[in-house]
From TrEMBL:
Belongs to the class-V pyridoxal-phosphate-dependent aminotransferase family. SerC subfamily. It comes from Maribacter ulvicola. Pfam families: Aminotran_5. One of its GO terms (cellular component) is cytoplasm. This is Phosphoserine aminotransferase. Catalyzes the reversible conversion of 3-phosphohydroxypyruvate to phosphoserine and of 3-hydroxy-2-oxo-4-phosphonooxybutanoate to phosphohydroxythreonine. Its main location: cytoplasm. The modification N6-(pyridoxal phosphate)lysine is found at residue 191. The keyword Amino-acid biosynthesis applies. GO terms for molecular function: O-phospho-L-serine:2-oxoglutarate aminotransferase activity; pyridoxal phosphate binding. The gene is serC. Pyridoxal 5'-phosphate binds at residues 76-77, 100, 148, 167, 190, 232-233. Residues 5-340 form the Aminotransferase class V domain.
Amino acid sequence: MKKHNFSAGPCILPKEVLLKASEAVMDFNGSGLSLVEISHRSKDFVAVMENARSLALELLDLKDKGYKALFLQGGASLEFLMVAYNLLEKKAGYLNTGTWSDKAIKEAKLFGDVVEVGSSKDEKFTYIPKEYSVPSDLDYLHITSNNTIYGTQFKKFPKTDCPLVCDMSSDIFSRTMDFSQFDLIYAGAQKNMGPAGTTLVIVKEDILGQVSRKIPSMLDYQVHIAKDSMFNTPSVFAVYTSMLTLEWLKNLGGIAAIEEVNEKKARLLYSEIDLNPVFKGYANIEDRSLMNATFNITDEVLKSTFDTMLKEAGINGLNGHRSVGGYRASMYNALSLESVGVLVDVMSEMERKG
Ligand SMILES: Cc1ncc(COP(=O)(O)O)c(C=O)c1O
């Protein structure tokens, strides 16, 4: 039976990417050797790393604009710490829009003063704060563009005089925008790029080197830049698979092309959520995420029937995050419109039964 994978991450990747990646595990570039058993310093792997870094900048339209792309390790969670290590001298601002920003704030507090410029904690992170003012003396302002757990997403970004840092883990490469409004973007690979194990960091070089503390080499962006993202052994499989996904996206027509599909998928699902009395959306309508749609079932008695119907339709990964409950449909780039159609059919069938 065909599976429809709505998992929040690690999550669905394009089939052709998985196929090519699995071929490379057995025989990389016809060398007779596996991708995972050759030196990361070999000509073939250095080319992979260079291509992956270059594609990332190209797709975001950040080439020749003073940015560097790095593929690091430690997940987005290590970036919570590295951002502050590298940029926080006195005071940083954070917009708190959920669990992930909360975690980033906790790490930053180890390095200096942290101001919560805005927060949606009062309403269980169902919305994106809009009424706030950014202090003029910040070293940087940090935001989380898409809140994977609560299903909210920034549609407009704050204008700042200080560097703007964005955790884009769950919506990078999914929608068009002017990416040059950010000075540092980071994203764990395991949503729109590849398997877990590498984190893409895009950083404008001129914001670095301004803190007075000593930074351990592995946590220093400048060290990774100087070594072309090969200071230590990179996560070769995750970087290679990410490169394949970025190539897949480029061949589709880039971010603008996938954005059209992502908008169609989100429109289809949200209109079902809004019209079907069995379900209720979680997030504020204007702040809804195109990537993670969160919703509840209005009558808990119907839950086990719905869960059985989901299983019978081959739908996987629809449970909400354990901290929120309910349901969450993650519609990352590789998920087809057809899969969303299958989910919507099950939801309307549920209405007939309910
Ligand atoms: C927005 C966001 N930030 C950070 C993280 C943490 O990422 P990692 O597990 O790669 O550290 C996640 C994980 O889902 C996330 O969705």
